[in-house]
Amino acid sequence: MRIVVDAMGSDDHPGPDVAGAVMAAREFGDAIVLVGDRPRVEAALAAQDTAGLAIEVRHATQAIGMKDSPSAAAREKRDSSMHVGLALLRAGEADAFVSAGNTGAILAVATLRQTGVGRIPGVLRPALGVVFPIESKPMLIDNGANADAKPEYLLQFGQMGSVYVERMLGIARPRVALISNGEEEGKGNHLIKETIPLMEASGLNYVGNIEPKEFVRGAADVGVIDGFTGNVMMKTAEAVAGYMSDTIRKYIMAGTLTKIGGALARPAFQRVRAQLDPDEVGGAPLLGVNGVVIIAHGRSNAYAMRQAIGQARRVAERGIVAAIAERLGN
Amino acid sequence: MRIVVDAMGSDDHPGPDVAGAVMAAREFGDAIVLVGDRPRVEAALAAQDTAGLAIEVRHATQAIGMKDSPSAAAREKRDSSMHVGLALLRAGEADAFVSAGNTGAILAVATLRQTGVGRIPGVLRPALGVVFPIESKPMLIDNGANADAKPEYLLQFGQMGSVYVERMLGIARPRVALISNGEEEGKGNHLIKETIPLMEASGLNYVGNIEPKEFVRGAADVGVIDGFTGNVMMKTAEAVAGYMSDTIRKYIMAGTLTKIGGALARPAFQRVRAQLDPDEVGGAPLLGVNGVVIIAHGRSNAYAMRQAIGQARRVAERGIVAAIAERLGN
């Protein structure tokens, strides 16, 4: 297995990107290609013990930042670490590409056939899947690849998410639901209402429209939603979880007894935090592009990068791209 | 002040609806009109101490349930407690209407001029505002009155929300934001992108597009969003808060020391719960209809109903309807 890692992706690049790649190389024994500004990447590597690891560096003269316009950067920064890394994937010189960089730019560079791997034949729009960090680990798709969607896109998101969950979690007939503002007939916006008949006729294990409450209770393995609402939903979940943690901590620290109680209860809080931790989850797979592309959180630390690389190798190993091609292709 | 309360609204009607009305009548000294099935309402009243309170009962032969189709129920159940109650509001015999019933049905009955109070002249679509239960208590609007929106609707939601927050919270120039999937230029779906220039030209204190994270941190007093996404967002927030509480409790109860710690920290948890409690917030104002209409949670207990009635009287007192008419009317 040979995995390309964008060394210029994370907010604190190249430190976490490089350190995570080293962890992954040691743990999984894969070859890693780090793409980025060679002097900076090699300096970060020099701080690590890389003896016996198959790590190489490819130089890229440019880097795409979080503030860059995705479409402009995709068009103009042709020698960015994303472009160079995705060209390796396209050329078949690597099995997967991982980046913690600008999501919109990765989408743009990866989806274009000139710069990236293009779409799997038959796929209308690639979509970003994300694992919702509750115990049952359902997938929410789309998490923002497409701010505006059509019914036939949502249908494909359900199909691609279903393939992913089947192969990655070993669930034979994943329950696919549309996320909506209500379960009753007549609920949903136009998009949802027009997608329902497509889902019903799809052969998927479509379990209906569900509200976020049901999704959080584990009522579906794949929650399908347009990228705008999905992204707002995921960010709301993260924000509320963070707000609750902060508020609980604040009130616990406000009294002596509660402070002692908080100290005693710390192992319980740590378990909750570990479960909700986006670092544990790895990255978000970009499904529908013709290669394995995993997008890690911009705030990723080395461990989160390692998890994303581990996820990339599993996605490659389990043939998700070929399985989507078989399911959707003509 | 004379407030009409739908006695057949809440999931456990008429108990909580009647008990909450009695609490409100005692607390605020207002006259309350309870509308519903007279024998059942009077039986519930008999269980309460109503000495000296100005409570009367109006009979309605029908009730609209949570499972009823809103449009069909609005059309067909012409003698429902909602129809009878909203007719009193339209006739000027009451200052406000409060119901914990089927939101879609309240919307439908209230918005139609034949059955309810109709729209304020100039208002394109009424919207459901909801107080987001974080410390700064911002308003999220629309919380589901309109599953599909247009830019000019969102603009009015911002205007109506702004009037509400000005008058209810005493904030002179409320910060109005669009809730989006990113703050950078180019983020947002078509709807958001087309709404931005309207917001910029509106004279509102428009502070830009914000992500849910910023909204939860208190970056805006009014968060504007289409009703589908707004409803999914609010329900996600409730679901994640509930999930976190349950998970923390489960892990605390799993160990002896953590259990002791949890007991000591209980006052802190209670403060968090009280802050997030939707019962404290009251109900959601339906802004843009030509009268004061407050929709309480279906799960409301007596205290939540009392809070919603208290909110209704403040909305009436502070002339929100007239202020919206002045701001939006021609």
Descriptive tags:
Isopropylmalate Dehydrogenase, 11 strands, globular, 14 helices, 330 residues, eleven-stranded mixed beta sheet, homodimer, alpha/beta, 2 domains
The average pLDDT of chain A is 94
CATH domain class of the largest domain in chain A? Alpha Beta
Overall number of structural domains of chain A: 2
Oligomer: homodimer
So what's the overall shape of chain A?
Answer: globular
What is the chain-wise order of helices and strands of chain A?
EHEHEHHEHEEHEHEHEHHHHEEHH
Could you name the CATH topology of the largest domain in chain A?
Isopropylmalate Dehydrogenase
Count of helix runs of chain A: 14
Through-space gap between termini of chain A: 29 Å
